[in-house]
Design goal:
alpha/beta, 5-stranded mixed β-sheet, Anti-sigma factor antagonist, 116 residues
Length: 116
């Protein structure tokens, strides 16, 4: 399966909608897009994983890297995900303690950013 990436803005949040599979083959595209958003000055980034069917360790590494880069600049990074198989991966790896995880983009925008 292919990776799809789409960006949209909600107030001061940049939402990166990810679909398909994030694996060793597709993760570099995700990394490139996240670097573009971060280097472009996006103050609040939300990665919407609700259309992701598969996420491997390479994809997790890309998300960790983006989170670290944003955290060091005082900007926010959050994940929107309500898919139990993906949430299980975050729990098993203890990354649920690292990432702010929300069930939807709406919940993430309400909890992060200037109005939170």
């Amino acid at each position: 399966m292919e990776l799809s990436l789409a960006t949209r803005t909600i107030a001061e949040h940049t939402v990166l909608e990810v679909g398909g599979e994030v694996d060793v083959y597709t993760a570099p595209r995700l990394r490139e897009r996240l670097v573009e958003l971060i280097d472009g000055g996006a103050p609040h980034v939300i990665v919407d994983l609700n259309r992701v069917d598969f996420l491997d360790s390479t994809g997790l590494g890309v998300l960790v890297g983006a989170h670290k880069k944003l955290r060091n600049t005082g900007r926010t990074f959050a994940l929107a995900c309500d898919k139990e198989p993906l949430l299980k991966i975050f729990r098993i790896t203890a990354l649920d303690q690292v990432f702010p995880l929300y069930p939807s983009v709406k919940a993430a925008t309400e909890a992060t950013g200037p109005q939170a």
